[in-house]
Amino acid sequence: MEKAKIKASQMFILVVLFEMGSAILVGLGVQAKQDAWMAVLLGLMGGLLLFLIYYRLFKYYPDLPLTSYLQKITGKWIGGLLGLLYIIYFIYMATRVLRDFGELLTTTIYTSTPLIVINSLMILTIMYGIHKGFEVIARVGELYFGIVYFMAIAGIILISVSGLIHIEFLQPVFEYGWKPVVGTALKQTITFPFGEMVVFTMFLPFLNNHKKVKLACMGGMILAGINIAITAAINVATLGAELFTRSNFPLLTTIGKIQLANFIERLDVLFMLYLVVGGFFKISLYFYAAVAGTADLFKFKNHQMLSFPIGFIILFASVTIASNYAEHIKEGLDVIPVYLNWPLQIIIPCFLLVIAFLRNRKKKKTPSAS
Amino acid sequence: MRKIFVISLLMVLVLSVLSGCWNQKELTDLAFVMAMGFDKGENKKFEVSFQIVNPGNVSSGQNGAGQGLPIAVYKSAGNTLTEAARNATKMISRRLYYSHTNLIAISEEVARDGILDVMDALDRDPEFRTTTQIVVARHSTAEELVSALTNLDKLPVNKITKELKTTESMLGENTRVNIDDFLAGLVSNGKEPVVNGYIVKGNKEQIGRADDLQKTKTETFLEANGLAVFKNGKLTGWFEHEKARGVVYVLDKVQSTDINIPWNGKKHAITMAPIRTKTKVSVHFKNGKPIINIAIEDEGFISEANTDVDLTDPKVIEKIDKLVEKEIKQQVMESIKDAQKIKSDIFGFGERVHRANPKLWKKLKGNWDNQFAELKVNVKVDSYVRREGIRTNPFWFNMNK
């Protein structure tokens, strides 16, 4: 394990950037049509509850990352196996985000550049970042947080000044009842992006002040959740529910609609900038979690030597995991939440918490008895 | 030594990536498509005319303008839009570039049958913008429309898009419709799209000839003309003049216009020009049936009074208000009746019902065309004359004394 120390504010920023990451770019909660924003908020609430589970686990083992306390809780072999599972999961998720990132660029502006070229440029940058360590990534986060917010605020002002927002497009609320909204929240928005906070179980020990974990992480989740919900609402209010569901990247379509004063138009570049920044942090954190996990599990003294092999795995997997974008998205919507996100983000942590609770109660009782 | 070798190797490797030349498109290798015109083809399904800007000849500046024509038009055929565009490369030395396309013109024939087959290509392409405006070429082919030259604006596309903007806000018989609006209307159950008509007036022989521009009164010119009404993706009819204005009124796109009212038995005696107009459409339900309420509110000034009228009297102003209200209401009612006759809900009343009562909408949606035809619509107009220009009473007032 690296001996990194970061401030609460840096942690907060990383959480915000990680959570918004790719979630803002794709049509999150699109199955709930015009109620997408509600599905996002519902997902946020679920995500906050989930985070409390991760937080409890962290309280039991404040100096250990997930892969270490897995072994403490469930024993060396099962824990090691579960740890390996988590590492593969982190690598796979990093792969998926990298693919998302590459697909977005190849469908929108670099239409004739091969995917692997775009992906390798991104992963090389990230490998360099990982090589430099967690503190560096956190500091880069501070730098980009301001830029992202500047773009977001500029974007919102421009959209509303252009008169594109039609609040009535958000109606009728609950057209198909509350079921699709809750269904979307359970199947999608709880796990993506809020449940992905499971990655931070690897990073929580890095925080220099352990008392601020809850504030930094949950605050970051709430801010990111509200941002995503606002984005979803703006997308629907600008495009209408029908075009919103038909768009691969609704935010891109929304930004493309800005036409102000005959010269402020075609601002797609704002979207692309955000895409690169958001993609960088999301991939970096997953990647780093995988690297740190591997180093921890297999007792590597130096995590740096792992960044290259794992980086190349991510790069080549990102090109091969799906043969086309439709397949990639279908997996993301139907397979990942049920077979990966739910077990790894929700079910296993719940079990861990129960076992940890029982074990620690025993521990506490024994000294008082003796 | 080894370190220096590695670093210099890296620098060389990085060079190939950082130059950013992967897929570069030089400005001189691009043909900027400003407008596209769709006509029915003879052998193939479509004939597509690409209006391409000739950059050297439109350079702005006091006397920097070139000598030649600002645009060039190429026509190619294809069964799909992509096929036509690729066939066009046999004629055009540069790569067609669609990011700056501002106008899609569709011939009446294509609009009546087959417009749907080009829409997805326009919607899907990452380069093309769906904020591009769409017009129907009336009484002429789309090719003629995109080939015409104009005199005030060098680029004919700019003339059309600017003109639509101006006439929308000054007259309100046309309204800007882009690909997104059109598609939203096509897809929605509760709304049908309208599209502007455009007409090439005058001598068609002179279309696209530079010598025509040498005259102060060109022999051919372009004019916005009517609103095309669509139903199930096919052009079904045209709304003209006041009827078109009625439609634009309900769509809340009218800002200013002119309303003529009779006075003292004289027709068109007083003209009121609204400067601000606001339309609110709401729905209420009675016995399980939707009733549409349209409330139009406008304020403006009297721009003409060609009769003996005492404009200093507030009572007279009030009377004028009432007459203007009646006139606007009549125009709007007539448009609505005409739309009901052809059972095409161009006003989006269905969407209002949908938003207000989704449950009832589920029942009505299947048969909305007929429901719309029998829909009860109330129109309420509140018009206010605020001022009357820089004269009080017209000269007629003193003349008859």
In total, the number of domains of chain B comes to: 2
Here the CATH topology of chain A equals Amino acid/polyamine transporter I
DSSP summary: helix tally of chain A: 12
Q: What's the overall geometry of chain B?
A: globular
- Overall structural class of chain B, as computed from helix and strand content, comes to alpha/beta
Number of helices of chain B: 13
Task: State the order of secondary-structure elements of chain B, H for helix, E for strand.
Answer: HEEEHEEHHEHHHEEEHEEEHHHHEH
Task: Name the poorly predicted regions of chain B.
Answer: none
Second-tier CATH architecture of chain A: Up-down Bundle
Q: How many runs of DSSP E, i.e. beta strands of chain B?
A: 13
Measured distance between first and last alpha carbons of chain A = 36 Å
How many structural units, i.e. domains of chain A? 1
Radius of gyration of chain B: 27 Å
Oligomer: heterodimer
Helix content range of chain A: over 70%
Q: Which radius of gyration of chain A do the C-alpha atoms yield?
A: 21 Å
Going across the biggest sheet of chain A, name each strand in turn.
1-2
Q: What can be said about the biggest beta sheet of chain B? A: 9 strands, mixed
Order of helices and strands of chain A: HHHHHHHHHEEHHH
Topology of helices and strands:
The complex is a heterodimer of chains A (370) and B (401).
Chain A: H1 8-20, H2 36-60, H3 66-74, H4 76-108, H5 115-132, H6 134-161, H7 179-189, H8 213-246, H9 250-256, E1 259-260, E2 264-265, H10 268-297, H11 304-320, H12 325-369
Helix pairs in contact in A: 1-6, 1-8, 1-10, 2-7, 2-8, 2-12, 3-4, 4-5, 4-10, 4-11, 4-12, 5-10, 5-11, 6-10, 8-9, 10-11
Chain B: H1 2-18, E1 30-40, E2 46-53, E3 71-78, H2 81-88, E4 95-97, E5 103-107, H3 108-112, H4 116-124, E6 133-138, H5 142-147, H6 156-170, H7 179-187, E7 194-202, E8 220-231, E9 234-239, H8 241-250, E10 259-263, E11 266-286, E12 289-305, H9 314-341, H10 349-356, H11 358-364, H12 368-373, E13 376-387, H13 395-399
Subcellular location (chain B): Membrane
Protein name (chain B): Ger(X)C family spore germination protein
InterPro entries (chain B): GerAC_N, Spore_GerAC-like, Spore_GerAC-like_C, Spore_GerAC_C_sf
